[in-house]
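so my prof wants the structure for this chain in the tokens format not the other one, which i didnt know existed until like an hour ago. anyway here's the sequence
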Amino acid sequence: MSHGEISDRVRQGLCMRIDALRYQLGANFAPGLSSKPLGSQPRFFFAPEQVPSLCDLLGERFPEETRQIIERAERICRHRFDLLGYHGLEYGDPIDWRLDRVHGKRAPRKPWFQVPYLDFAEVGDSKITWELNRHQHWLTLAKAFRLTGKKRFAAELFQQWRQWHAENPYPIGINWASSLEVAFRSLSWLWVYFLLEESATMPPDFQDQWLRAMGISGRHIETYLSTYFSPNTHLLGEAVALFFIGTLCPQLRFAARWKQRGWNVVLKQAQRQVQGDGLHFERSVYYHVYALDLFLHAVILASVNQVPIPQEFETTIEKMLDALCLLGRAGPPPGLGDDDGGRVFDPRRNRGEHMLDPLATGAVLFGRGDFKDVAGGAREETLWLLGPEGLSRFDQVTAKSAEAKSAALTASGLYLMANAGPGRQLVIDGGPQGGAGAGHGHADILSLCANHKGLPLLIDLGTCEYVGEGDLRNQFRGTASHNTLCVDGLDQAEPAGPFAWRRWPKVKVEGWITGEMFDLFTGSHDSYNRLTAPVVHRRWVFSLKLGFWLVRDVAEGTGKHQLDLFWHLAPGLHPEPKADECCGVFLNANGVPEIAFLTASPVEWTREIRRDSWSPTYGRKEPAFSLHFSSMAELPAEFVTWMVPLPSATAGLGQLNSITAEAGASNARGYRYTQPEEEHTVVFRWQNGSWSLGPWSSDADFLYWGVENGRRTLILCNGSYLDAGGGHRVFFSKRRVLRSEIIEEGPVTQVFSSDKDAIEFNGSLAEIATETGMTVVSDLKETGQ
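here's what i got, hopefully its the right format
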């Protein structure tokens, strides 16, 4: 620890104990009111007189959301709550605010710093308890009252307000144990006050109670900022709440200081927590959206209160929106890393399909048609944050399709392979375990996720929980719950508590080439170097933009090792009844094929279709299928998976075969996929130097040859020559060229290259096709390929 951290932790430790002693002595913790005259009145996102018209517009533009608000408010009045992924939790009358209803565990009534909130045996899952105590359901009651005029919704809100404060005196209990939770609760109280301000239903003494409560919360947040404890979204959320309280409660003695300090921390964390590619440093899509929501709320409140906003901060927010837009342009973004289950505005919008919500507000703030297109429509949140004018500006922004170009978020290590048409994208996780302590990262190095037709196709299995009776936390964040290779049954890193890892692996991106017709990624990691006989996992991913994805996994090392490869299918996909006859076809709910897996390997692998569970949001498990390949193999060993997203039920499947080299020419590995009037061949160089395989000879790292629908395609990566058909020099360069593509369709030949002036191409691809008749040496049907 630095001297600053030691000093801050000692100060906080002393304050905790002094506060506990003061409570026993009957102290009043609310800071007094300021003696200075107020300047200009602060503004919330909307003025009191705007609320009726906002509610009218809400009912008009968002009728389904309006109906749900009223229905949820009815259930809340019966003390039935939907929390995280849990539905219909009964909390009794009066509400037990210290109870984890799911697991039937109640936190002890102790000073907050003595409550072991991560000890499942004593308190249960604190996230469930805290989710109720964020009081976001009070906003639902307030909105339901404003929408219907039914006073019982407001009466229930104020009854819960009184009961909560009676049961949770400061500083007693689990609901003061996290500064972030105090921050979320404070934001809810602010929203409630301004939704009900100047309404006849507000009790006459409520403003004084509210100011006292805001003062206690502001004092707690400032005193126990997570500057060193959890300097991620915890610190950011606390800073946003401190800024809100300081801005909107100027009557409080320390409001000006809280406002300035909160704003300064927000600006500093925008620089620290957001990487150069726009993704949040936790490398979790959910936490990226969490942070983005907080930044958006803060910058809008700053704007309406004439707080100077640095251009750099606005640029950072737009970069975050850009990253989210890229990840979500083919449908719900991949669920990389932890899924927290909570949201800043509407806690019920906590599934993958809701992660694009910030783009609607971003489309208005930055006038971006691609944000509007990917968002798919306006959101209720945009109405409350930006008012009717915001919705009007959203309508005026011209939607523009996001570019279907492959891209890399290099600071985060995410590589996005986009296909020629919209709705299909494959995302490769080639980055580190996570940011800072990787507390919200998963053991998912070189894992893939994919969307097809705008819907998930290959998924991570989610998070499920942070603490519990069993080992679900480690199961869901472990390597086997991701689309990657597992060696000897071990995770890529060793869990060390619910938010820590030991033996972080090193990952290396060895190649990223994107061309007109293809993308090629190569990466490796040393996770399994900790074994007695070390193993390196290296993965190649090749995407033909008009067709398929090919994944080549190589386990490099010596000795025999257990190798397990997993492909986790999106919910709703199920295996074709005759899956044993062709290696893995999966159908949607209507019986239409969506994806086929064909495989090949020089060694024997077994295949299993498993009924797994995935977690669409925190606390919830739902069924899904997984495809599992396994082998006890002598290393080095490799396995190729040819994935074909199927456009229709009539799409036929061909055969995938490995190509065996002639004796003494084993410096390459090749695979050939054939079906009537279609052929695709890929060759990977095995070691440095030249190679020969079938009719081909080259020094290139990678070769692709394809004939399909009257189009012939030749792709060469990092090579200087290519011979075909017994010595015909097809391609030549005086230096190695990273990327060369030759595409011939009818009389038209197109050449694309990273160094076009350096290459020479001899002859036509039609001539090459007649020269390269290839004999398939090994048919692998008996192993399921």
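also thought this was worth mentioning. The longest strand covers residues 728-745.
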